[in-house]
Design a protein that fits this description.
With about 375 residues, the chain is α/β, with parallel strands linked by helices. Helix content is about 40%, strand content about 15%. It has two domains: about 190 residues, 3-Layer(aba) Sandwich (Rossmann fold), CATH 3.40.50.2000; about 180 residues, Glycogen Phosphorylase B (Rossmann fold), CATH 3.40.50. The strands form two sheets. It has a seven-stranded parallel beta sheet with strand order 3-2-1-4-5-6-7, sandwiched between helices. Helix 1 links the parallel strand 1 and strand 2. It binds ligand GMT. The site of ligand GMT has 20 residues, from helix 1.
Length: about 375
């Protein structure tokens, strides 16, 4: 099948899922075309099965805002025609589902019909999409998609609650490619980051307010008062300065490593003992799943789709958003007993295996087949 994938190419869960999905589809024999404004971060290898088409938006002084949707929908039309793309799979509703709908309409004028599959990822529904400024267009483009998927049951419920949806939504969760986690590291170069008696606590995100970075630091502060520990903060974003100041005011600067953006997530997770994800809202929590796949148990909030991933008492613990004391208590429970911690580490990987890429990608293939069959009967 020839599949066009539209996504945000930057660091961030939806782009990662879209890229990993495209690569997996290409390995299964499909021809995949990424159509976006920059080559996706995790898309290193292009081949005869993986193509990248850049959407250019030339600056024009008249425009206060450059019309990206317009450029994207034009590019989609051109690429569908040039490469005979059969299905368009857009990740993140805003503005991708809307642009794809316009492209579909333009193609129809030329008697070309391409179904649109829209995957909802989270903030396109919860934080941004439901804002009155966007809601009408987001509702419209979800209802007009030929198939809609959401990355968790919780996100599906939120979508049905926040929008007036008359389309089916199928839950297809985030996934993990275990072949990327069967690495050869032995000691993971742990000694470069911490001494033997120190536990390594890690948080990875785009350091946006929704991730509650202050909670990450406060939980770590509580942990290190009882147990020798280091905090690895991975990622770049608007909360970084606040985070650095908070560490300084708590007197823990020398115990916190700010990595910035990193392409070595697997190595960092390899030497981690515990992962923190105290988010305000989280449709799924891909970062938690990646940690669990690396045998790192998770202390998280119980918001959104996280409870569908992190099983309390098995792969980690859940607490109410902002309940720092409970998070510290649960973290100390796991970290203070070596045998117990090892049990949680093993369990984390077992739980993660439920989201194996080989179980999830066929679900997307089935959706593509269904939409194609439906469109042929039109
Ligand atoms: O929150 C992020 O870090 C980025 C964001 C995105 O849209 O790229 O992630 C969302 O999509 C991921 C992939 O489906 C989910 O695993 C994240 O939970 C979700 N983030 C939120 O809902 C806040």
């Amino acid at each position: 099948m020839k599949i066009g994938i539209v996504c945000y190419p930057t660091f961030g869960g939806s782009g990662v899922v879209a890229t990993e999905l495209g690569l997996a589809l290409s390995k299964r024999g499909h021809e995949v075309h990424f159509i976006t404004y920059k080559q996706p971060v995790r898309l290193e290898l292009l081949s005869n099965k993986v193509h990248f088409h850049e959407v250019n938006v030339p600056e024009y002084p008249l425009f206060h805002y450059q019309p990206y949707e317009l450029a994207l929908s034009s590019k989609l039309v051109d690429m569908v025609k040039l490469h005979n793309i059969e299905v368009l799979h857009v990740h993140y509703a805003i503005p991708h589902a809307y642009a794809a709908y316009m492209a579909q309409k333009m193609l129809r004028e030329e008697s070309i019909y391409v179904p649109i599959v829209t995957t909802l990822h989270g903030t396109d529904i919860t934080l941004v999409g439901s804002h009155p400024f966007y809601k009408t267009a987001v509702t419209f483009s979800i209802n007009k998609s030929d198939a809609v998927t959401s990355v968790s049951q919780s996100l599906k419920d939120d979508t049905l609650r926040l929008f007036d949806i008359n389309n089916d939504i199928e839950v297809i969760t985030n996934f993990i490619d275990f072949s990327k986690y069967n690495h050869e590291f032995t000691d993971c170069q742990r000694d470069m980051m911490a001494s033997e008696d120190e536990k390594i606590i890690t948080h990875i995100s785009n350091l946006r307010p929704v991730k509650r970075i202050a909670d990450v630091i406060k939980v770590f502060y509580g942990i290190q008062k009882q147990i020798p520990a280091k905090l690895m903060l991975v990622g770049e974003g608007p909360e970084r300065e606040m985070a650095e100041e908070l560490c300084e005011s708590l007197g823990i600067t020398e115990k916190v490593v700010f990595f910035g953006k990193s392409n070595e997530i697997d190595k960092i997770l390899c030497f981690s003992d515990l992962f923190l994800l105290p988010s305000e809202t989280e449709s799924f929590g891909l970062a938690a799943l990646e940690a669990m796949a690396s045998k790192v148990p998770v202390i998280s909030s119980n918001t959104g789709g996280i409870p569908e991933v992190n099983v309390p008492g098995v792969s980690g613990f859940l607490s109410d958003v902002g309940d720092i004391d409970d998070m510290v208590k649960n973290a100390l429970y796991m970290l203070s007993d070596g045998e117990r911690l090892n049990e949680f580490k093993k369990n984390a990987k077992v739980e993660a295996s439920k989201f194996d890429i080989n179980k999830i990608v066929p679900q997307y293939e089935a959706i593509y087949e269904q939409t194609l069959t439906k469109c042929m009967s039109l």
